């Protein structure tokens, strides 16, 4: 008895009759391509199966005495359009406009980009990809260049990945030893710089701690000890900038001097710190004997305190440019008289001296010993030269001259 099988042809069913020991082609999915192509297959006949879509089941089979030995396959036929959207740097392979059922595509990124998402997708049903989300390509970040430091991991780094920056020994990241940075679409957020520490030097006579570490961007202060200074200052504020102090630091704090003492019958002005200079002045009617200034040098004044002498009102001294009275009569010197402040002893005149003409002294006079004139001297018109030496004085009957007078009055006439 022959078996009847239904065969589908273009929308209608046609009955197909095969012998009992035969296998009908109609047992397979109509979308399958069966080779060899026959209506009925005898026992032992093999077939191969193919599909323009996706085969569900074995791709070959054999006719047995009771029908097909293996389960019959199916054929799914549908298509998918090209995955969209394809972003910057993303490539798809194979790249075409339409894909068959169950066809798989592979995604990849161009050089310099990193893939975020699945690298494959399959046409799972009509116009449906699995997974449905198309991946993205983001620019990668290379290993950052860190001045005086490095990072803990190696690259390349993809979008959103982080790296930890560590500074070399002796450097810091504004007070912290590590810093995390993030790769943002091919670029790092600002890469920090490792800055060098500053170290205080040894500064004698100050509170500076030699070798003290100061962090970049911070300020420190150095104070001279009490009674010491540098360039008339005692406090020094400096800022650390990448291993270098900005501002003045002393190499040493110098000892200041004692408070200056004014001369008797005089005054003194000026400070007593190292390097400062003071000035001496005598009161009105007094002449300065000694230096008129002194400088403080590391705790010591450069000169002694001078003295002030009273002017020659009656033979004990001579005021600058003043008229003098010697004994009972008045004798006048030129108002242009200038006597050296270094005159260390007064002139003692035992008897009156008559000065016929006025004397104009244009340079200083230094009298180192008293001169005693025992008899009147009539000076007619001598010429006095610089550093002239009075070896003797002419007297009527006897002469006695002791000491030396240094007169700097070149070409002056009496």
Automatic annotation (TrEMBL):
Biological classification of the source: Eukaryota, Metazoa, Echinodermata, Eleutherozoa, Echinozoa
Record flagged with keyword Cell membrane: no
CDD domains named in the record: CCP
Matches recorded under Gene3D superfamilies: Complement Module, domain 1 (2.10.70.10)
Protein known as: CUB and sushi domain-containing protein 3
Disulfide-bonded cysteines: 80-123, 167-194
InterPro entries: SEZ6_CSMD_C4BPB_Regulators, Sushi/SCR/CCP_sf, Sushi_SCR_CCP_dom
Keywords for the protein's UniProt record, in alphabetical order: Disulfide bond, Repeat, Signal, Sushi
Signal peptide: none
Keyword Disulfide bond appears in the UniProt entry: yes
Naturally occurring in which organism (per UniProt): Holothuria leucospilota
Highest taxon listed in the record's lineage: Eukaryota
């Amino acid at each position: 008895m022959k078996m009847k099988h239904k065969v589908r042809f273009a929308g209608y069913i046609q009955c197909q009759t095969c012998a009992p020991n035969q296998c009908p082609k109609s047992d397979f999915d109509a979308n399958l391509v069966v080779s060899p192509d026959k209506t009925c297959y005898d026992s032992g006949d093999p077939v191969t199966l193919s599909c323009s879509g996706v085969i569900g089941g074995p791709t070959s089979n054999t006719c047995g005495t009771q029908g097909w030995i293996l389960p019959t396959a199916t054929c799914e036929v549908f298509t998918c359009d090209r995955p969209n959207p394809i972003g910057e740097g993303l490539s798809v392979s194979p790249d075409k406009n339409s894909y068959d059922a169950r066809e798989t595509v592979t995604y990849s990124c161009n050089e310099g980009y990193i893939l975020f998402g699945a690298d494959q997708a399959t046409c799972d049903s009509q116009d449906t990809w699995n997974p449905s989300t198309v991946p993205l390509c983001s620019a990668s970040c290379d290993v950052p260049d860190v001045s005086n430091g490095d990072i803990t991991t190696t690259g390349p780094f993809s979008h959103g990945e982080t790296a930890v920056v560590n500074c070399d020994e002796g450097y810091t990241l504004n007070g912290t030893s590590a810093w995390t940075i993030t790769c943002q679409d091919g670029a790092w957020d600002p890469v920090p710089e490792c800055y060098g520490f500053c170290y205080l030097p040894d500064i004698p006579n100050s509170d500076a701690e030699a070798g003290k570490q100061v962090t970049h961007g911070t300020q420190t202060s150095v104070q001279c000890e009490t009674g010491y200074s540098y360039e008339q200052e005692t406090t020094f504020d400096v800022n650390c900038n990448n291993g270098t102090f900005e501002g003045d630091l002393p190499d040493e704090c110098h000892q200041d001097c004692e408070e200056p003492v004014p001369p008797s019958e005089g005054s003194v002005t000026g400070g007593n710190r190292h390097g400062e200079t003071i000035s001496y002045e005598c009161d009105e009617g007094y002449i300065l004997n000694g230096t008129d200034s002194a400088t403080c040098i590391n705790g010591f004044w450069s000169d002694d305190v001078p003295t002030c002498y009273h002017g020659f009102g009656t033979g004990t001294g001579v005021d600058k440019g003043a008229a003098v009275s010697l004994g009972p009569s008045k004798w006048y010197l030129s108002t242009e008289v200038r006597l050296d402040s270094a005159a260390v002893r007064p002139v003692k005149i035992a008897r009156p001296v008559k000065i016929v003409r006025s004397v104009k002294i244009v340079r200083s006079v230094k009298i180192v010993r008293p001169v005693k004139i025992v008899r009147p001297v009539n000076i007619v018109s001598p010429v006095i030269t610089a550093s002239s030496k009075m070896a003797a004085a002419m007297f009527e009957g006897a002469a006695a001259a002791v000491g030396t007078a240094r007169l700097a009055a070149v070409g002056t006439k009496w």
